[in-house]
Amino acid sequence: MTLQSGTGITGQRRQRSPQHDREVKLWLYTFEQIYQLVWKDYSVGDIKNIIWCLVKRLRKKLNVVEDGAGNCIVSVRDIGYKIELNNENEQQ
């Protein structure tokens, strides 16, 4: 699933201000996409718990590098995870 800026999960176009598009960059990955990227294989069965553990460890490691850095990984219920970066995070 690939989302373009301003397109919702349903594929319907949402109105967004140009200022919002400059402030937030968003990447959304489904559980299946994450599994394929990490293990270079297609998922079989329920992989949500596997991905949850992976993301938990990743957030912990990011927070060691910079306090609160793991907060940029946000769960999207029953879909996967999204990464949100605002301009403040990009400039640092």
* Main beta-sheet strand count, sense and barrel state: 3 strands, antiparallel
Estimate the strand proportion.
Answer: 15-25%
Q: What is the total tally of β strands?
A: 3
Order of helices and strands: HEHHEEH
Mean pLDDT: 77
Helix fraction, binned, reads 40-55%
How far is the N terminus from the C terminus? Answer: 30 Å
Provide a count of the helices: 4
The strands making up the biggest β-sheet line up spatially as: 1-3-2
The poorly predicted ranges are 1-12
Radius of gyration of CA atoms, rounded to a whole number: 15 Å
Note the overall shape: globular
The SS-based structural class is alpha+beta
Give a quick precis of the structure.
The chain has 92 residues and is of the alpha+beta class. 41% of the residues lie in helices and 20% in strands.
Task: Write up what this structure looks like.
There is one protein chain. The protein has 92 residues and is α+β, with helices and mostly antiparallel strands. Helix content is 41%, strand content 20%. The chain contains 4 helices and 3 strands, in the order αβααββα. The chain has a 3-stranded antiparallel β-sheet with strand order 1-3-2. β2 and β3 form a beta hairpin. The N terminus is likely disordered.
